[in-house]
């Protein structure tokens, strides 16, 4: 038995000659914000569509809440899914759209979590404006409100920030943050690395239909045992201080600063030690971000095409 909300086991999906997903396995646990990360064509949408019962797997199993998914599965009512652009009636207000849509499902408005949905979507007074006056980002947030009316236990979001500008992307990121603090489980896909890095607790990297790597974001970026670049006012003295920290494996001079290889500590330990000893900390940043890790993984995937589960992340 497992408590996983989503389980995908040995999933294959072919469309004629096109192999969209090959031997993919992963699980999403309650409360995780899980990202499927990969370039266009990697197989992310197909995976989500199979999971939602919109496509049949060629081989393998997908389970939601422990039950195998089939088209029209009953457990799908516990899922809020956004796999296509949400469509609204443009000349009606956001609120009217929400109510119409909810009632069209045969449910009564008093059973919807309208307040909760609006609080998370953050549209404020714009909810009473016509949808045709909305920006793309506002429409996307109205789409979230619509999903949330039914109090879904799992949200499945296919590229939720596609087509949005940076400000709108930040708003969606904050929205997903609010969802997550309320305990929702989220499975989303993205080809934006920085977004997954900022939003997700866990990430699965896909390329050419296959899993390339998976783990926590910090495992993949190597931040738990990675290295950090710092610039301080007195480099020689900082070198001596940091070399004596138990969480630090090695310190080297690089350019105007120091590269600190962490053994098991966190970046904040370096910052705390330096600031605590009276240094002026000018710069501190990870030397390897998910973006680098992702590109490395894709490059490794190109050359060796690892089988699912065999890929290891080197940092
Ligand atoms: N309905 C379909 N018919 C034929 N090929 C498809 C279909 N859906 C997806 N594909 C192909 O499967 C591969 C994976 O697509 P997709 O899952 O959409 O990737 P992603 O969402 O990561 O961009 C692509 O080569 C795509 O062209
Ligand atoms: Mg897609």
Describe the structure.
The protein is 32% helix and 28% strand. Strands 6-7-8-3-9-10 form a six-stranded mixed sheet, with helices on both faces. A four-stranded antiparallel sheet has the order 2-1-4-5, covered by helices on one side. Strands 12-13-11-14 form a four-stranded antiparallel sheet, with helices on one face. The protein has two domains: 6-221, P-loop containing nucleotide triphosphate hydrolases (Rossmann fold, 3-Layer(aba) Sandwich), CATH 3.40.50; 227-286, Alpha-Beta Plaits. It has helices at residues 44-51, 94-104, 114-121, 136-148, 166-181, 193-199, 217-221, 235-243, 267-276, 290-304; strands spanning 6-15, 18-28, 33-37, 59-64, 67-68, 79-82, 154-158, 185-190, 202-207, 210-216, 227-232, 248-254, 257-262, 281-286. Mean pLDDT is 87; it is low at 303-315. A hairpin with a 2-residue loop joins β4 and β5 (67-68). It is an alpha/beta fold and 315 residues long. The longest helix has 16 residues, at 166-181. The protein contains ten helices and 14 strands. The two termini are 34 Å apart. The chain is globular and about 70 Å long. Magnesium ion binds at residues 44-45, 158-159. The site of magnesium ion (MG) has 4 residues, from α1.
